[in-house]
Structures are given as structure tokens and as C-alpha cells.
């Protein structure tokens, strides 16, 4: 090392964050590239001077990625673990780890989580009060559980993901109460053991004359929450019902994104009122509505937002005039829409009329078991729509040949002088049909599909039955 003139340490640190320590390498068994820990560039920089070494060493060990660092000896990891700020996605070293400055802690591998790892995780959580992102998934041992005491010190937590836990005896209520002051994103998946009212205030037996004030005082309130993604309201054993969801969202005044399931046969008007009145910022809604009638889904979607939705995704639904009319109420603001129709319950003409009204749409996708034929194509072409669409996805049942699909789009790229259609990033090998009649029918059907999008001037991505293509100006 030399004592030559130095850059300021803060500049060296910025340079360090531009040096990749994890390098993508091809996998011998998969098309997906793997990331490997390759710090040779850092080692070369360490030789510049003592200042460079002292400045870059914390940058090199800023993030721990167990999968990519599995070959590093455990004693090396333990020695430098006090530099870690990020730890994910799997803990493969036994430690001990001396982390006290973590901001991100994620352990999200259901199959590989052990009882010992979760004991380590509990200790790491308690020793890192500055955590901003925390992911905790269930250990393989059924005796392992979560307690609200593990979360009490996390006053800076902004993103919390819990998955695969049995949280009975109102544990979830206590956990959310402990971290709720700054929480922005909450994800709850595969949470079991919840009972009705487990997320509601616990009322005392006496003094019930003023029940309403007790509810308001004890309500679970997350004042900064912007996004909640959960499957605990789907109904059935081990899940909460729609009334619990109504009670819960009332404590989220800044909620912008809601991703949830709706129990079958639910009455949704009260939930719509709760979201509209208590969550005035709600802009993005994704619902899994298996078993929910069209009229009840329409009663929720239509009035759910006073200012209008920005994006909407509905899965396992019946699409008819009533629902499309409800969606059209958001035409002035709706820019992203995706519909997944259950079975054959799809009124395509109503969908087209809705698309005409929703003139602001930039992305639209529809998936159905409807058979794509000439009648479907003619219905989709019957009115002018999609003039602002940038991305379109059409997924209908069809028996077309994969090889013919590829041939068709490649031929289109040669024939069309204005637009160039190119296959997307992933490779798909298709075998051409030997029967000439099948090939002719396939091409005719694809011509119909192409005619639907040909006049959409803003469209740059078109996915047809899982075949993604992009087009750009020549």
C-alpha cells in the first residue's frame, strides 16, 4: 500500500457500490443464470492504499446472500458479519453472526428453514432495531411460533412479510400493533389459526355501555400502510371472513393497494363502503373472487373508490354486463385492467363496450376458456377501442400449432414495412404441423388476431395465448 494522494473516503465508497461482487454465471443444468461471489475487483482495489481498503471493506460485505456465498468459510463470514446491512434469502452459515446494523432481513425458503435457523433469526431481529424490511417464514418444526415480543423494538420497520405461520391466540394482532407505526407494506400468506375477530379490538366483559368508543380506542391502526397483500380472507377453515376484512381496512387511512381474496357468497356492499370511506387513497385493487356472484362483485368494484381506480385485476370471475358496467365507472382513471374469467362465463360483447368506455387504458389482459374463433375475433373488432393501449394480452382456448404461431409472426415481421414484430426474450421451440389444412386454419386464425391489434398505434407488446411479442418502429 502507498501513501499517494487519496480520493475522499465518501467518493471511494460510492465507487465501491458500482463494483459488482456478485457476478452472473451460466448454470450447467438450467437456463437461469446463477450469481456467484467474485470479489477479485475489490481485492485489487484494496491494494491501492489503506484508505481504499478501509473504505471498501464495509461495501464488500454490505450484503449477505447465502446461496451465492455458500462456499465462503464460516469463520470468514463470522469475522466480517458486523458489516452486513442486508441478509437474504437463505442463511447457510451457522455463524455466530454479529449483525447489529441490518436494514433488510429476509429468510424466505419454506423447504430449507430449520428450527435452529429461526432461533437465529429471532435473535437477529431482536439485535437489529433498525430493520426496515423483514421476511419471516415458518420453520419446519411445528413447535416454532412467533411472539409479539420479537417485534417490539422494530420501530423503523416499513415492509413486513409473514408466511406459513400458525398465529392463534391473537398473536398476529400483537405483532402488527408492535410494528405498525411506520409500516408501509404488509404481506400475509398461509397464516393459520386465526379466528373471527382476532384482528379486532378485544372488548372487556364489563362496561359495555360504550362499546363503540372501545372499538375505536382499540382498533388496529397502521397509519402509514400503503399496500396489503394477503390470502387470509378467502373464507373456509383457517381463514377470516369478509366482516374481519371490513374491520381491518378501517384502520388503514393511507391504503393505496389491496390484494386479497373474497370469500364465496359474500355480501360486499359494506366492504365497498368501508374502503371508500376509510381508505380514500385506494387506487390499486386485485381480487380473487372464486365463488362470488357477479352482482356482489359488481357491488364492490363499482363504488369502491370515490376518486376512481388506477389498476384493477379480477381473478376467477364471471364477466357479464353488470360487472363491466361497474368497471366502467372508473373509466376516467383506469389505466391497467386484467380479467381472468371462470370457465365459459364471459359476455364478450359487454367486454368490448367496456373497453370503448375505458379509453385511458394502457394495459389490458383477458384470460378465458372461451374458444377463439372467427366470431370472437369479429366481436373484438366490432368497435374501436384500445387507441392508447401499450400492452395487450389475449388468452383464449385454441388448438393452434406452436410452430405455426412462430412462423406466422416471423413472416409478419418480414411483410410489414412499418412495424417489426420480434419474438420476446424467451425461446420457444415449436414443431410445424404436417397437415396442410391445419396450417392454413392456424394462419387464418392468427390473421384474425393480428387484425385486432393492427390499428392500435401505441401498442408495443402483444401476448397471444402465452406467446409474447414486441413491436417497435423501424
Automatic annotation (TrEMBL):
Protein name in the entry: F-box domain-containing protein
InterPro entries membership: LRR_dom_sf (IPR032675)
Source organism superkingdom: Eukaryota
SUPFAM superfamilies: RNI-like
Amino acid at each position: 500500500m502507498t501513501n499517494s494522494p487519496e480520493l475522499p473516503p465518501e467518493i471511494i465508497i460510492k465507487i465501491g457500490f458500482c463494483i459488482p461482487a456478485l457476478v452472473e454465471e451460466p448454470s450447467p443444468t438450467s437456463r437461469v443464470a446463477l450469481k456467484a461471489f467474485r470479489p477479485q475487483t475489490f481485492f485489487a482495489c484494496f491494494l491501492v492504499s489503506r484508505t481504499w481498503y478501509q473504505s471498501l471493506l464495509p461495501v464488500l460485505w454490505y450484503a449477505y446472500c447465502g446461496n451465492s456465498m455458500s462456499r465462503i468459510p464460516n469463520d470468514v463470514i463470522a469475522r466480517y458479519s458486523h458489516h452486513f446491512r442486508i441478509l437474504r434469502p437463505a442463511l447457510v452459515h451457522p455463524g455466530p453472526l454479529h449483525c447489529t446494523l441490518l436494514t433488510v432481513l429476509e429468510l424466505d425458503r419454506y423447504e430449507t428453514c430449520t428450527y435452529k435457523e429461526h432461533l437465529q433469526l429471532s435473535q437477529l431481529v431482536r439485535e437489529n432495531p433498525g430493520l426496515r424490511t423483514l421476511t419471516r417464514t415458518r420453520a419446519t418444526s411445528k413447535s416454532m411460533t412467533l411472539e409479539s415480543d420479537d417485534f417490539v423494538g422494530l420501530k423503523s420497520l416499513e415492509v413486513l412479510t409473514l408466511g406459513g405461520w400458525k398465529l392463534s391466540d391473537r398473536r398476529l394482532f400483537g405483532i402488527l400493533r408492535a410494528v405498525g407505526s411506520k409500516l408501509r407494506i404488509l404481506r400475509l400468506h398461509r397464516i393459520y389459526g386465526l379466528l373471527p375477530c382476532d384482528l379486532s379490538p378485544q372488548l372487556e366483559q364489563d362496561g359495555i355501555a360504550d362499546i363503540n368508543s372501545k372499538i375505536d380506542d382499540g382498533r388496529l391502526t397502521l397509519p402509514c400502510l400503503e399496500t396489503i397483500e394477503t390470502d387470509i380472507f378467502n373464507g373456509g377453515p383457517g381463514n377470516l371472513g369478509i366482516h374481519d376484512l371490513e374491520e381491518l381496512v378501517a384502520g388503514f387511512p393511507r391504503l393505496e393497494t389491496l390484494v386479497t381474496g373474497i370469500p364465496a357468497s359474500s355480501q360486499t356492499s359494506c366492504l365497498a363502503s368501508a374502503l371508500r370511506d376509510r381508505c380514500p387513497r385506494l387506487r390499486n385493487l386485485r381480487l380473487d373472487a372464486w365463488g362470488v356472484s357477479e352482482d356482489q362483485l359488481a357491488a364492490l368494484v363499482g363504488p369502491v373508490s370515490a376518486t376512481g381506480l388506477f389498476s384493477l385485476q379480477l381473478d376467477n370471475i364471471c364477466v357479464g354486463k353488470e360487472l363491466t358496467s361497474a368497471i366502467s365507472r372508473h373509466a376516467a382513471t383506469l389505466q391497467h385492467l386484467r380479467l381472468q374469467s371462470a370457465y365459459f362465463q364471459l359476455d364478450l360483447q359487454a367486454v368490448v363496450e367496456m373497453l370503448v368506455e375505458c379509453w385511458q387504458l394502457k394495459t389490458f389482459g383477458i384470460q378465458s376458456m372461451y374458444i377463439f374463433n372467427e366470431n370472437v375475433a369479429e366481436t373484438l373488432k366490432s368497435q374501436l377501442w384500445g387507441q392508447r393501449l401499450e400492452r395487450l394480452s389475449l388468452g383464449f382456448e385454441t388448438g393452434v400449432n406452436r410452430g405455426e404461431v412462430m412462423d406466422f409472426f416471423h413472416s409478419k415481421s418480414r411483410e410489414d414495412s412499418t412495424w417489426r414484430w420480434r419474438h420476446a426474450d424467451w425461446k420457444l421451440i415449436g414443431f410445424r404441423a404436417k397437415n396442410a389444412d391445419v396450417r392454413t386454419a392456424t394462419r387464418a386464425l392468427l390473421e384474425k388476431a393480428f387484425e385486432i391489434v393492427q390499428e392500435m398505434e401505441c401498442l408495443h407488446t402483444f401476448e397471444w395465448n402465452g406467446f409474447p411479442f414486441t413491436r417497435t418502429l423501424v
